[in-house]
Design goal:
β10 and β11 form a beta hairpin. The protein is α+β, with helices and mostly antiparallel strands. It contains eleven helices and eleven strands. The protein folds into two domains: 154 residues, no CATH class; 171 residues, no CATH class. The radius of gyration is 20 Å and the shape is globular. The longest helix is centred in the middle third of the chain and has 29 residues.
Length: 327
């Protein structure tokens, strides 16, 4: 008899009385964002908007219903992350990638959970049926299954379902950089000392595409403007990815194993679509606007696109100390 686990995306169940991860009845709750991070950077009272901009919450208000078992498991995870966090880049780099997947996944899934609840309640008020496409049901359902590995006998074998990159980062002590994409399951996190980027369900394809620049970064400390450009490269690569990540999921009495299936493109369809510098420049404008950098600064007639990661002609990595921008 195979293991039977809760999947909220089968019947779209996002009610307060059910644990977000196991579906068990509960009265317990846990914060979407780690409490120690909210306290340290004092952003608990800051507001965060839902995707359609018509609803917002404070970060501290975002709470997930959870069973005592799930709450305890995430508390134990937090202890490991905090210990690594205090050691900076070296501590975070040494962590098992699955721990970073679960830690970042908790925040991404937490935001996804609130998006689902908000849409469900909005549709109910409008007397409409709340539904998701089969593609999203499958993507989110697989992600939820992977998150359940924190409490269930679920293991990852062979090729992992994610791309995670951790690197040294220079920031002001009181700044935290956080960004997620709940639809595409992307995550960006940076503080003084380190940053990391996670594509939580890409089968490692995007990490492979960005392998060259990640290798050039080795031994360098990134400037925040470089961090933003790197995440934009990951984000845009996800946008032009032409194959849906597939997984080999085996369910037995002993538990579930998950293995990422390598992408085998055909001759008429490469793994990634055309990289359009015009679209990428618009994306970069969104990330770099805090520095006053506009699209016309990124794309100039008869000049290579602006980059803070690579020199335009030699493609050598740019040392962050040579970048005259605030951090």
């Amino acid at each position: 008899m195979s293991l039977s686990l809760f999947n909220p995306f089968t019947d779209l169940i996002f009610d307060d009385q059910f644990c977000f991860l196991t579906g068990n009845l509960t009265t317990e709750k846990m914060s979407v964002f780690p409490v120690w991070l909210l306290d340290h950077f004092k952003f608990g009272t800051d507001r965060i908007e839902m995707m359609d901009k018509s609803k917002s919450y404070t970060y501290a208000d975002l709470q997930l219903p959870c069973s005592p078992r799930v709450k305890k498991a995430f508390e134990e995870l937090e202890k490991k992350i905090q210990e690594a966090y205090q050691q900076g880049f070296e501590g975070m780099k040494a962590l098992d990638e699955q721990l970073l997947f679960l830690w970042s996944g908790r925040m991404v899934y937490g935001m996804l959970y609130y998006e689902m609840r908000y849409e469900s309640e909005r549709n109910l008020r409008l007397r409409q049926i709340f539904d998701l496409s089969e593609t999203l049901r499958e993507r989110f359902g697989n992600f939820h299954l992977m998150m359940q590995s924190i409490v269930e006998p679920i293991s990852f074998v062979g090729k992992k379902p994610w791309s995670i990159a951790v690197f040294p980062l220079k920031y002001s002590e009181d700044i935290i950089s956080y960004r997620d994409d709940t639809v595409n399951l992307l995550f960006q996190f940076g503080v003084q000392g380190f940053g990391f980027i996670a594509c939580l369900q890409d089968n490692g394809i995007i990490g492979e595409k960005q392998k060259e620049i990640l290798e050039k970064m080795e031994g360098h400390i990134l400037h925040p403007v470089q961090f933003e450009e790197l995440f934009a490269r990951f984000h845009y690569s996800d946008y032009i990815l032409q194959y849906k990540p597939e997984f080999k999921i085996e369910n037995t009495d002993e538990g579930i194993t998950i293995e990422a299936i390598p992408v085998l493109p055909n001759e008429n369809r490469p793994v990634f679509g055309f990289w359009d510098e015009d679209i990428f420049a618009q994306l970069m404008t969104n990330y770099w606007s805090v520095y006053g950098i506009q699209r016309e600064d990124i794309l100039k007639f008869q000049k290579p696109p602006l980059s803070f990661l690579e020199k335009p002609y030699t493609k050598d990595f740019i040392d962050s100390e040579s970048i005259d921008l605030p951090f």
